[in-house]
Amino acid sequence: MAAQETTTKHWRFHTDVERLGWLTIDTAGAGVNTLSREAIMELETLVARIEDLVSSGEVIGVILLSGKDSGFIAGADISEFDAMSDFSVLPEALKRTHALFARIEKLKVPVVAGIHGFCLGGGLELALACHYRIAVNDEKTRIGFPEVNLGIFPGFGGTGRSIRQAGPVDAMQIMLTGKMLKAGAARGLNLVDKLVRHRDMLAWEARKAVLQKRRSRPAPPVKRAMALGPVRGYLATKMSEEAGKKARKEHYPAPFALIDLFEAHGNDWQAMIRGEIDAFVPLMGTDTATNLRRVFFASEGLKKQGAKGAKFARVHVIGAGVMGGDIAAWCALRGMAVTLQDIDMERIKPALERGKALFKKRLKSKREVDTAMLRIEADPNGKGVARADVIIEAVVEKLEVKQAIFSGIEDQLKPGAILATNTSSIELERIAEELKNPARLIGLHFFNPVAQLPLVEVIRSSFNSDAEIGKGAAFALAIGKSPVVVKSAPGFLVNRVLMPYMLGAVKRVEAGESKELLDAAAVAFGMPMGPIELMDTVGLDVGQSVARELGQAVPAESKFAGLVNAGKLGRKSGEGFYKWVDGKAQKGEVPAHADLAGLGRELVQPLVDTTEVVVEEGVVANAGLADIGVILGTGFAPFLGGPLKARADGRA
């Protein structure tokens, strides 16, 4: 059998006594497998060898596995995308990969993919070119097409093959949303044929699948019928309408290009694949795709800020208001044991109810919801402080209140525990004045709504060490958030740049301009919501407090101050600048305007200007961190690459 063993840089192939061919991908020098151009060329050579072995009868089936614990294949090598966007290179490279996957599909013996961990993008496209797919049914397995988040769509034949397997409606939904599926959901959509409980069962089940000559069945006729005749045109129209609600075509062209491809060829999966290259190529070099790749790499870079080996099991949150309660619920959702403290149970109970609503929304079964609820405990007496690995204060933005809390618990902390404040604007040095060891206090500033916004500002005071900040960043990563380290300064990064933007819009509303028009203009520019709706979402009281900290006090005679005094604080109270029903702002008609996007650019200008100032002052280490922080914390148009990238490109 030694003669049949082959090892390349990224692959291993051998045959066994049963004439099974075992093909393993193990990308050299990387924690995850990717399909680089080099890996694809090596695979071409191996497939040619397999074809010869099949022809000679020396191989009766092939099993494709991953040699890495992290998963199957995370997709194409994104680090090559800038070079691949060259029109003189990309079409030929895509044709070559299409031809390779077609050769795998045409092999006359069963080809079985064994999937664990990540099976995404090009990895899923390769798996779909195999004849049968087995996946580990655990929490780590994730299957999907995230390409839309990079301004493209599947380009290795995945458009047609996913439609063949899942049917047009489900396949298009997966591709248009970039949603990652658990193994069970992928099985339900026919992207996976069999589930196993453990990774060590993959090889055995794959062997049986080859010996039994199993082959995946396509989607049933009732699903395929949704792509026939006028039904397909109707579906394409509805898809475009839904995509248009989430993004403008000029900002994010990829979903609309995919829908056009589906409308032209969705009734024939092979024609869909043939049309894929011509539709894909123009997207790769767009400003949108280039900037989204920049955002992706910046987001990945944030993971390097966390201290290695830091572990967290227990979190204690002080303050059961909207922010504190939602931070506690999020930590419980992410598997932490949480104690939530406030003056009494009456204050804690609403937070527990909101937590349960979050769990019901995010978790599949009642058992999972009940288990998550067991992880969050009401703790009015603060007994959880002494056991916690992380203590987060999230009370009202008043310096003296925060100082009293921290000085009262400092002696209860266990060694090595993180002591953090969720302050949105107050400098840490001022909060830490009453502490015996001010170096221990860091900032962990979450954003509202906690479950939706990924950013946590890890705030560093002049007292803090690299070790404390590294632990804070590691905790943010442990609960699935993206940490950006910022220097302690009024407003830090996000609120510092947001306030001039929001207050400028409020001033225009005070002067008589339409709030609906201003919000619509900001959205036309590329913001996820307008500045007035955002102020309502943040909370007018919070906005007023931050403005005061930044030396931009709200005039007492203003409508803004009047709303705060009347308890009309925005979304959380049911009314602010807008009335809110079921969590949605009730808006009137948008007045006509000749250039909505131009007005939006004008509105956003103070945010861009202030971001530049913040970098100059050293609040963040560099422009790249400022851009990713503002994107993650405010939703600033990712397709523009961030405020400073947009300015450099002449687009803001």
Automatic annotation (TrEMBL):
Keywords noted in UniProt: Fatty acid metabolism, Lipid degradation, Lipid metabolism, Lyase, Multifunctional enzyme, NAD, Oxidoreductase
Biological or metabolic pathway of the protein: Lipid metabolism; fatty acid beta-oxidation
EC number of the protein: 4.2.1.17
Boundaries of every 3-hydroxyacyl-CoA dehydrogenase C-terminal domain copy: 491-580
One family name in Pfam for this protein: ECH_1
Sections of the chain in a coiled coil: none
Protein name, UniProt field: enoyl-CoA hydratase
